[in-house]
Amino acid sequence: MNFDLFRLVIITATEEGNGFNWTFVGEHTVNLIILLAVLAYYLKDPIRNFMVERRGIIGNEIEEARKTIEEARKKYQEYSEKISKMEDEIKSLQETLRKEGEVEREEIVRQAQAVSQKIGEEARETIKLETAKARREIQAEAASLAVELAESIIKQNLKGSDEKRFMEDFIKKVEEEGKWHQ
Amino acid sequence: MEERNETRRQAQVLHEEMIKKAREEAQALLEEAKQKLELETREIKGKIRSDVETIARDMASRILGKEV
Predict the structure, then answer these.
(1) Is the ipTM value over 0.85, yes or no?
(2) Would A21 disulfide with which of A13, A154, B7, B50, CB 3.0-4.6 Å?
């Protein structure tokens, strides 16, 4: 704007004569200086006040901005610490859960080992019982077979004299039994 | 929590595998013992036939009071 005003003065000064009109320029320059001096005289205090007030406002704004930045920095620090603590807590919780999982796993495996051992013991006990049963069956079969065979042999070798001797032995035993009871 | 569930699931799988293996081993042991018992029973029965005859003769001799 100042440049335009200056150019207007130059053009006007040039149009009024063939050469450059220094008088015209000088007059207007003086007028301008006087105008500026008057303006400076009357506007000095308001401008100063305005500037002081403006400086105060800007200072306050800067101070508030500084406080806001400081608070934001504190908040950032606070939240960073909280996040860090939360991360630590999450890690701790994960570790606790992992350990609990391991304990549970070991317990499940221990139970499985106990059940497996019991199954093995039951199988061995079953084998033992079956072996004893087979032994009893063999003994019973052998005894039965021996009695049958002995009966057959006796029948084959039994004679009249043997029957008489059996009768005498039987009577003798009955008599002895009678004596005992008396 | 997912990790723990995974650990639990793996442990359950291991548990079932161990039980299954124990049952299979027990079943194999029983089958083997059964076959062995049957074989030994047959062998013993074959062996005691001669002993039974001796015992029967001994019993008959004692009862009859003479050698048969």
Answers:
(1) no
(2) A13
